[in-house]
Every structure is written in C-alpha cells, then in structure tokens.
UniProtKB/TrEMBL annotation:
<dbReference type="GO" id="GO:0015095">
    <property type="term" value="F:magnesium ion transmembrane transporter activity"/>
</dbReference>
<dbReference type="Pfam" id="PF26205">
    <property type="entry name" value="SH3_actinomycetes"/>
</dbReference>
<dbReference type="InterPro" id="IPR027275">
    <property type="entry name" value="PRC-brl_dom"/>
</dbReference>
<dbReference type="InterPro" id="IPR000644">
    <property type="entry name" value="CBS_dom"/>
</dbReference>
<dbReference type="InterPro" id="IPR038076">
    <property type="entry name" value="MgtE_N_sf"/>
</dbReference>
<protein>
    <submittedName>
        <fullName>CBS domain-containing protein</fullName>
    </submittedName>
</protein>
<dbReference type="InterPro" id="IPR006669">
    <property type="entry name" value="MgtE_transporter"/>
</dbReference>
<dbReference type="Pfam" id="PF05239">
    <property type="entry name" value="PRC"/>
</dbReference>
<feature type="domain" description="CBS">
    <location>
        <begin position="352"/>
        <end position="410"/>
    </location>
</feature>
<keyword id="KW-0129">CBS domain</keyword>
<dbReference type="GO" id="GO:0016020">
    <property type="term" value="C:membrane"/>
</dbReference>
<dbReference type="Pfam" id="PF00571">
    <property type="entry name" value="CBS"/>
</dbReference>
<dbReference type="InterPro" id="IPR006668">
    <property type="entry name" value="Mg_transptr_MgtE_intracell_dom"/>
</dbReference>
<dbReference type="Pfam" id="PF03448">
    <property type="entry name" value="MgtE_N"/>
</dbReference>
<dbReference type="InterPro" id="IPR046342">
    <property type="entry name" value="CBS_dom_sf"/>
</dbReference>
<dbReference type="InterPro" id="IPR011033">
    <property type="entry name" value="PRC_barrel-like_sf"/>
</dbReference>
<dbReference type="InterPro" id="IPR058838">
    <property type="entry name" value="SH3_actinomycetes"/>
</dbReference>
Length: 419
C-alpha cells in the first residue's frame, strides 16, 4: 500500500473507491465536509461523504481514513450507516466551494475556484491548505490564467453567494455516470442544484432525471420553463417520461404533452393509459425491434447501443412491419446468447424463439414477477389482443415498481458494519 501523499486535491477524489482493511470496496467518495472558520485560518476537514449500496450517502470521519493514494481510499472498516445530513456549520467542498468567486489578497486577480487541496497538519488533522482558481477568459475561446495559492491568500471563500456559477461543479458531474450524477445533484443545496440543472444540456438532464427519486424529478421539472421541460421530456425514454408526467398536476401535464413532438407525446399518452402496477404501465416502449429478414449482424449492432440497459439488450423482438409499437404481429424473440453463436450474415429468423409466452398489458405486477421468475427471464414482450408488440417489461422496471419508494434509505450494504 502506498503512503498517503502530503497534499491531495479534492476534486480529483470524487468517485474514488473506498476499501476496508480486508480489501472489500464499501463505497465511493462523493464530497468532503469542512468546518470553515475564517479566511486566514485553514479549515479542518471533518470527513468524507461516501455513497454506499443503494445510493445511500453516509459520513466517514477523517479519523477513520487510514490511507489515500492516487486511485483509492482505505478506512478502518467501521462505518456508521446513518444517512449523512449536513449541519449548518458544515460546508461541502465539491457541492458548495467549487465555482465560488474569489480574489487573491492584495492584488487585482479575481477568478473562480476549480479545486481545493488538503494536507495533514502537525496535529494529524487534515486541513484545507491550497486553493486553485481560474481567471475569466479573455478573447475568443481563451481560458483564463490559473493560480494555486495558499488558503490565507484568498478572499471570498467563507461568504455565501446567491448567484454562484456551476462551471467546475458541472465538469465534475459530467464525468459521472447518470446514476452517480443524480446522486450528487440530489444532495446539493437548492441554489446549487438550480445552477447545475440550468447548465446541463437537455439530453444529459433527461438521463439524470431518469435516475432521480420522483419528488426530485417533479421539483426540477416544475422549476423549468415549459418549453424546456417539454424538450427534456422528449429526451427521456417514453416510459420514464410517462411516469413523471403522471406525477404532475393535470393542467401542467396537459400543457407539456401539447408542447412535445406529436410522436413522442403519442407514445407517452399510450403508456399513461395503462394502470401503473400492470405490464403496460411498467413496460419500456422502445425495445430492439427488427423484421425477420434482418441479419444477425444488424441485430448485434442494435444491442451494442450503449444507451440500452443490460436487460433491454438481452432480447431482440422480431415482428412483421410496421416496426414501431404497436407493431405488426410479434413472431418471437432472439436471445443475445443465440445471436452470438450464429454467423453474422444469417437472418435473425434463423435464431427465432417462438416458444416464449408474451405478457398482456393488463397483467398485474405479481403475475409479471412470477412469469419472469418461472422462465428465468430478464425481459419479456407485452402484446395486445391481436398479438402486436406494445413494449417490453424488464426486470429492472419490475424492481423499480416492487421496491418501496424509500428503498435506498432502507438498504444497508451487506458486509458493512454499523458504527
């Protein structure tokens, strides 16, 4: 194990895995908590905000951190699984200090904070020691000059800003997977969350919204202007958009559906016509659908789409035209394992499995669960009374509906002891 470096820049720690003494990963670093005292006195680093199983965020005191190196953090292994709640006297480094406008003391140099470094003092406490700031750019596409200075040389770090930017916080969030970005945004103070949401492009915001709890989705959407809210909904998968619109006031929902593109709005309305706890209400409306004369190579190209979940990529649905739900008659499915064993030039019809019973859109959640469990499936087609494909229910859709709304708060990580 390498020794802990004398200086650690904190923006680079976001996402680092955290291990116990046995080498088992117990979580990921999401932020660091400090106690600000004054602009000349180095703040003490109290601990880390750590994401464990189920996106639960807990607090690990720095006294429990035994080692930090370039790619990982080690702890004593004894963790308190109580959810982290920020106190009024505490400041989040990533969530609240990045993008703060500051000035170098005794000079005209101004800029925004893009990183902060910590070091161990003689007392063995970790303190914030350096501030990395960037001046505003001058001229077309020119980045401003950067500076790394002592904490005491910077003015403006301890004051709160109502109109704080989000450039550098956004850069950290853009590097995360949508689920991790959603977790970060969920725990931001309201004013910082607003700034980040405003800066995200529609596609990225749609990806993040799909991973947020329903109350966060509704709150964020209600704070967008209606035109942008409709654009973001169009970027979401139809089933997630339908679930979100169903949680909005009826007048707001009607307005947004009118503003959406007709094809997207039609898909959402169709999904909203089914009860929530049914196959129709849970299904994804955009599985991989191909005609029987498509080749294995075409099928594999479709399932390689990185936007597909693992369960949606497990099956290709073979239908007669038209190929947009509701399609022509469903002929069967092709399993990914079978596709991988066939020559690429072979037609998908040669890999067809027509023995898989489809689900009806009104089938209840317990029957859907029993069907997937009985046949060891991660997904199953949903068809109407004429055998036309309407969509597919995946095991992750099923779990989203079967688990309690607050399951992330209730599920401790197996093997992690409570402190």
């Amino acid at each position: 194990m390498s020794s802990t470096p004398s200086r650690v820049f904190l923006a680079r720690m976001v996402g680092l895995p955290i291990f116990d003494p046995q080498g088992d990963q117990v979580g990921k670093v999401r932020d660091l908590v400090v106690a600000l005292r004054s602009e000349t006195s180095q703040p003490r680093v109290l601990g880390m905000v750590v994401e464990v199983f189920g996106r639960r965020r807990i607090f690990i005191p720095m006294t429990r951190v035994t080692n930090i190196d370039s790619g990982q953090v080690y702890t004593t292994g004894l963790l308190n699984m109580r959810r982290f709640v920020q106190r009024p006297t505490e400041t989040l480094v990533i969530g609240q200090m990045l993008d703060r406008d500051v000035q170098i003391r005794g000079s005209e140099v101004r800029g925004t904070v893009y990183d902060v470094a910590m070091e161990q003092a003689r007392t063995r406490d970790w303190v914030l020691s350096r501030v990395a700031l960037q001046e505003p750019g001058r001229g077309f596409r020119r980045k401003g000059q950067t500076h790394v200075v002592e904490w005491s040389e910077v003015v403006g770090l301890t004051r709160r800003e109502e109109n704080q930017g989000a450039t550098h916080l956004l850069a950290a969030i853009q590097e995360m997977r949508p689920a991790d970005a959603a977790s970060m945004i969920h725990d931001l103070p309201p004013e910082r969350r607003t700034a980040v949401v405003a800066a995200l492009d529609d596609e990225r915001l749609a990806d993040v919204l799909e991973e947020l709890p329903e109350e966060d989705q509704v709150e964020i959407l209600e704070h967008l202007d209606t035109e942008r809210a409709a654009d973001v909904l169009e970027e979401m998968s139809p089933d997630d958009a339908a679930d979100l619109i169903a949680d909005l006031p009826p007048e707001t929902a009607a307005t947004l559906l009118e503003l959406m593109q007709p094809e997207g709005a039609e898909d959402v309305r169709r999904l909203m016509s089914y009860a929530e706890e049914t196959a129709g209400g849970m299904m994804a409306a955009e599985p991989v659908i191909l005609a029987p004369d498509a080749t294995i190579a075409e099928a594999l190209a479709h399932v390689r789409n990185p936007d597909l979940t693992t369960s949606l990529a497990a099956l290709v649905y073979i239908c007669r035209p038209p190929l947009e739900p509701p399609t022509g008659k469903l002929l069967g499915v092709a399993h990914i394992q079978r596709l991988l064993r066939e020559p690429p030039s072979t037609l998908v019809a040669a890999a067809l499995d027509d023995t898989l019973d489809p689900l009806g859109p009104e089938m209840g959640i317990d029957d859907v669960a029993a069907h997937l469990a009985t046949y060891n499936l991660v997904a199953a087609p949903v068809v109407d009374e004429d055998g036309r494909l309407l969509g597919a229910v995946t095991v992750d859709d099923l779990l989203d509906h079967m688990l309690p709304e607050n399951w992330r708060d209730l599920a401790p990580r197996p093997g992690v002891r409570r402190g």
